[in-house]
Design brief:
By secondary structure, the protein is of the alpha/beta class. The protein is built from 16 helices and 13 strands. The protein folds into 3 domains: 46 residues, Transferase, Pyrimidine Nucleoside Phosphorylase, Chain C (Transferase, Pyrimidine Nucleoside Phosphorylase, Chain A, domain 3, Up-down Bundle), CATH 1.20.970.10; 245 residues, Pyrimidine Nucleoside Phosphorylase, Chain A, domain 2 (3-Layer(aba) Sandwich); 89 residues, Pyrimidine nucleoside phosphorylase-like, C-terminal domain (Aldehyde Oxidoreductase, domain 3, Alpha-Beta Complex). The radius of gyration is 22 Å and the shape is globular. It binds uracil.
Length: 434
């Protein structure tokens, strides 16, 4: 077989066999297929796409390229959750303690942020002392004793995807449904859960900018998972504006803690209740979504969810007092308030722009090796749909460098569209794919 012929076959619009996809992926991992041919292969998939069988095969080939996590030490159904990535997305920080306090074990491997999207592991590291790396024995012990552990990816999960993603990132081939769905699902399959709830983001801060393509992505991932014998549900959720009112690391942990205490923003709490209900149902903790939602709301009202957060922090070496005193998280002291330049409404927001501005302040990485500043970020006072008066604060930038502040202000300003047009308020959930 020759890489040239596989690329040509796809270029001419034909379906690839499992052997042909395997030849390209395994060959690339082994260094036998060079970068330039793999780049051409990815670009041809970008334009010609893959059908359901091809996606299934690509996912399986990438999933078995590395380790598989064995979660059999947990009894019952193992449920995982995955977000396709957004701005201000601190969902796992809220959702994990909520569902664990309802009796569903959470054994979660999360990622770091890259580009305009944040990552759970960076956020957790804003908690003084919190260890995002545990030994396998510690991880298991915590899940058994506390029903919760959230750690960074230590195992060598789907290394083929890692290598291919790095090439996609520099060849403008990230945002294609076959490639995204197989990339995400290869890691989820290797992570060992029986059931997966997907949070597929749509809007200006997401990979998928419109509901039709987000639904196609959700359908592709649900189909791949089901064909691999997993129970699957995907929610299509709003990312046309940041989630909640904070974007950064320490500042997002603070908002997550407030939400677990019942004082969080409605969009974040609603999203966590909706995703959590799907998780509790798939995990057979309860039979109906409505009873699951009641359980989750009760976990906040009763204080069980915040207690679980404290327990998780303590069990992973962090200072549990941050729950009672969020100033211990160390949000930067320097602030700059961006004021509205006219009366009207926030007609729309470029959520990706807010994420990029936060990254420019130092809260995110442009390149994998960049070091981030956990104390900086952006607190929004106004979001899409809100009315504003000239001179009112739109958002507050937390910063440690004047130069970085200057670069961030430029981007934030253009991310707010103020006009006399009042947009329709839209909910956080746009659809469900089962
Ligand atoms: N997240 C992933 O893991 N892979 C993609 O392709 C896109 C988002």
């Amino acid at each position: 077989m020759r890489a040239y012929d596989v690329i040509l076959k796809k270029r001419n619009g034909h379906e690839l066999s499992k052997e042909e996809i395997e030849f390209m992926v395994d060959g690339f991992v082994k260094g036998e297929v060079p970068d330039y041919q793999m780049a051409a292969f990815l670009m041809v998939i970008y334009f010609k796409h893959m059908n359901a069988d091809e996606r299934y095969n690509l996912t399986e080939i990438m999933a078995r390229s590395g380790d598989s996590i064995d979660l059999s030490f947990i009894s019952g159904i193992k449920v995982d959750k995955h977000s396709t990535g957004g701005v201000g997305d601190k969902t796992t920080l809220v959702l994990a303690p909520m569902v664990a306090s309802c009796g569903l074990p959470v054994a979660k491997m999360s990622g770091r942020g890259l580009g305009h999207t944040g990552g759970t592991i960076d956020k957790l590291e804003a908690i003084p002392g919190f260890k995002t790396t545990l030994t396998e024995a510690e991880f298991k012990k915590n899940v058994k004793a506390h029903l919760i552990a959230v750690v960074g990816q230590t195992a060598n999960l789907a290394p083929a995807d890692k290598k291919i993603y790095a090439l996609r990132d520099v060849t403008a081939t990230v945002d294609e449904i076959s490639l995204i769905s197989s990339s995400i699902m290869s890691k989820k399959l290797a992570a060992g859960a029986d059931a997966i709830v997907l949070d597929v983001k749509v809007g200006s801060g997401a990979f998928m900018k419109d509901i039709a393509s987000a639904t196609d992505l959700a359908r592709a991932m649900v189909d791949i998972g089901k064909k691999h014998g997993k129970a699957m549900v995907a929610l299509i959720t709003d990312m046309d504006k940041p989630l909640g009112y904070t974007v950064g690391n320490a500042i997002e942990v603070e908002e997550a803690i407030d939400t677990l205490k019942g004082n969080g923003p409605t969009d974040l709490e609603t999203l966590c209740v909706e995703l959590g209900a799907q998780m509790l149902k798939l995990g057979k903790i309860t039979e109906s979504l409505s009873s699951a939602k009641e359980m989750l709301k009760d976990s906040i009202k009763s204080g069980n969810a915040i207690k679980k957060m404290k327990e998780m922090i303590e069990s992973q070496g962090g200072n549990p007092s941050v729950v009672d005193d969020t100033s211990l998280l160390g949000v930067s002291k320097n602030t700059f308030e961006l004021k509205a330049w006219k009366d009207g409404y926030v007609t729309s927001m470029d959520a990706e722009g807010i994420g990029i501005a936060s990254m420019k302040l130092g809260a995110g990485r442009e390149k994998k090796e960049d070091k981030i500043d956990l104390s900086v970020g952006i607190r929004l006072s106004k979001k899409t749909g809100d009315s504003v008066k000239m001179g009112e604060t739109l958002c507050t930038l937390y910063y440690n460098s004047e130069e970085k502040l200057k670069a961030a202000i430029e981007v934030v300003k253009t991310s707010y569209n103020l006009s006399s047009v009042r947009p329709q308020k839209i909910g956080i959930i746009h659809g469900v794919v089962e």
